Amino acid sequence: MESRINLMTTDFGGKAFKRIIAVGKVIHDSAVPQTILQLVELRASQINGCGFCTDMHSKDAQAAGEDSVRLNLVAAWREATVFTEAERAALALAEEGTRIADAQHGVSDETWEQARKHFDEEQLAALVTAIAMINAFNRLNVIVRTLAGSYQPGMLDQL
């Protein structure tokens, strides 16, 4: 399989990605724990079938010291005992926010209330933005078939 286009090498794509990446940096500078952001980005990427983002976020999390057992269990987080209540609330929010069309009313009140128990308004704003942005990244990469496997932690930091 080959990528359809490398958006980063086009004038428009390069400009757009730099701005999207800048939003990601704002999110990662928020008060939401990095571990939670990494788990959320990984889970949404798994759901959306984005190989590049799944590769990137699992490698970035591992480089930051995340345990491989936890990373391997993200896809089955409901049945795993290795996640905190805050992480579980964030993963539920990420799943419902990613599968928004699958639910009659988007994110359920129950899931939102669980997230509110663990995150203040600023953190919720960052978490919701993180979910929206990773879904945008996933869609861009899936549409153009960005290939997975070659990502190295930090390789996008210079953008």
Radius of gyration: 15 Å
| Biggest sheet descriptor | none
Give the integer mean of the pLDDT values.
Answer: 93
For the record, the count of structural domains works out to: 1
CATH architecture call: Up-down Bundle
What's the total number of strands?
A: 0
The helix tally amounts to 7
CATH superfamily: AhpD-like
As an assembly, this protein is single chain
Going by helix content, strand content and strand pairing, the class is mainly alpha
CATH topology: AhpD-like
Into which percentage range does the β-strand content fall? under 5%
Large-scale geometry: globular
CATH class: Mainly Alpha
SSE arrangement, N to C: HHHHHHH
Low-confidence stretches: none
Q: How far is the first residue's CA from the last residue's CA?
A: 26 Å
Structure description:
It is built from seven helices and no strands. Helix 2 (34-48) packs antiparallel against helix 3 (51-63) and helix 5 packs across helix 7. Helix content is 63%, strand content 0%. By secondary structure, it is mostly helical. The protein has a single domain (10-144), classed as Up-down Bundle (AhpD-like), CATH 1.20.1290.10.
